[in-house]
Fold this protein.
Amino acid sequence: MTEHSNFLNMIIFLTSALICVPISKKLGMGSLLGYLIAGLAIGPFGFKFIGNVEEVMHFSEFGVVLLMFIIGLELNPKKLWDLKIPIFGMGGLQILLNTLLITTCSYWLGCTFSVSLLIGMGFSLSSTAMALQILNEKKLLNTTGGNSNFSILLFQDIAVIPMLALLPLLVEKQTDAQNGTNYLVLLKTLSIILVTIVGGRYLLRPLLRFVASLHLREIFTATALLLVMGMAFLMQSLDVSMALGAFLAGVLLAESEYRHALETDIEPFKGLLLGLFFISVGMSVNLQTILSEPLVILGLVVGIFVLKSTAHYLIGKIFKLPKSQLIFFSIIIAQVGEFAFVLFGTALNLGVIEKTLNEKLLAVVALSMLITPLVVLIYDRFISFFCDTTDKAPDVIENQSNDVIIAGFGRFGQIVGRLLHANKINATVLDYEPDQIELLRRFGFKIYYGDATRLDLLEAAGAHQAKVLVVAIDEVESNLKLVKMAREHFPHLKIFARARNVQHTYDLMDLNVESIERETFESSLKMGSSVLQSLGWAPYDSVKAAHIFRRHNMEVIEMLHPRRKDTEDMVARAKQSREDLAKMFEEEHEIRLNKDLGWD
Amino acid sequence: MTKKVLVILAHPHLNQSVANRQIAEVLKNTPDVTIHNLYDNYPYFHIDIKKEQTLLKQHDIIIFQHPFFWYNMPPLLKLWMDEVLTMGFAYGSKGEHLKNKKFMLAITTGSEQMAYSENGYHGFDIHNFLFAYKQTCQLCQMQWQEPHILFGSRKTTEEEIRNHAEKIKKHIITLTEAR
């Protein structure tokens, strides 16, 4: 294909999405179905706008690759550990039960054992993209059921690795020598993955730190993309799926301070790529295969859905999920997912299955994904009303963020953060200077690299859940930009802002900021007191003088604030305020000299 | 070995004071006496508890010197008491660090002595107002000394103040040289 037709393809993808997605959304069917229908429409079995199936598969696979990177980014070892019971308990049981059931059924339907096992494993997996997208859209991720779904999907992400590694062992009619090489391949693959993990840990962060220190956003994004593609390519050259490589790259960076930055940089791509992925799923639905044996395929899809839903329902019962969420929990992950494409694709290359069977399986997978939004629709319209909503067991809302976000962790924000930290209050810290981040991380601070004035980064840092935003950015423009944005998008946040000077203070007052501190005011007052002491003042008198000065100064600022636009008036007022201050000091002096004060 | 004396001086505006400044001046020149000016040391009211307790341990005679205002001590001295005279240090089964130390009060009042009587301006004898000090002394197992009170401090002459200060000095010397 030429460059030109690639360009044309993109236009077709975008146009089809632009037509189908809004219509689907307006009809109340969600965006997912829109993408799938768009794919179906433009694919080789629709209007044939895009005929080259290989090209389609290529696109499709890269969609999954980037998706897997993002999933990997969200899967750091700590998160994994917190969810260990749902992940390994529910996830393990889900894979085990489904694999067992489906393998048995396949064997019973006449497949060989190795093919049955392949189908069992492949069909036990669900679509992370589909399920998470729907859960996210319905804001159910933080419910007990949603959390369990997420845990199971996480376990599947991991389980697919040994599954892929197991594939070479399923090759039939092999001699012992071949068997040996298969073990060798497995060993080679595992050791390279291990080397990548270890090497990545030590190489990736310094690389990103260097790139970040250049302060060139697009180069940082380019590095992230290069990283994903590089890992994908490396894994592909090892005959491991590209998606797995990208996933590994994501996991490697999940713990790094650049996670938020990477997430936000890739976020704009994420939606589009997910869309692209779903379009490609739509395109890969082989209507010919389906139409040749419509009842068999449809029967298989329905069978899989029923089988998996039942198994999930059982698991949900065992783990005591709230009754009202049980059905939704069961059906949302009942489809077969994108991992099955990868698994079956690899199996086809290895010769575990034949091409015709592979096509049938892929048709089942794609169709099962296609009907998921439909099933959800049916659930919403008809089933949800019958669900037992009497149990009032509150959903476990995971506290996913700290109460305090500190934007800017230089000389100012650092002291605020350290004071909080010393008193066991954790804050999420956003800063732009990579060198400092590294140093502070060594002292156990949770710090993320990024520009806090970006809405998406603020969201990623948990601004929705936080209570307090400390704006400690020194640069006036960014400081005000962040305050304005927070006021607009997160009105619940209490804002504490650092002000550079009086002018900046006025600007912050215009925005109704709760607490404003001029960055040098307090320390200057303190030094002023010290100077008075050095001149023979009693220390307590010098401190009181500073207190009086502070109060007076704040009163003057309050007074001048509404009139600041009128410059001439300002000058007169400023002069007046100086006189006021002098008068106030004189009055205070007289008070102290007044014998009737009572102290002697 | 002579005993050591710690004068805890609490006056928010010592520079404006006449009587207390002179008394402090005299005490400063008394042998074995350390003047500890609370308002100078803690103008931000952030008391170093460890340091204060160490200081107390190092002395045998503790004197509170302050103006008597609203029948009480200046706020920083009250804060000092709250924070420094803790359980386990000053009182309680293990708090015996002040045991057997001598405690003396050196205060000045604005009113004449006559005002401190049943028929006077303040309605009670001055000793009624010193009850809390006495009981504090008792609880910390310290030995109560006869307090030195300068009444009507703003009407007294310099000579009267000097005589008052000398009286305190003499008292201190008898205590330090005892036994």
Observations:
- Chain B has one domain: 5-177.
- The beta strands of chain B are 5-9, 33-37, 61-67, 102-108, 143-144, 148-150.
- Chain B touches chain A through 22 residues (CB under 8 Å).
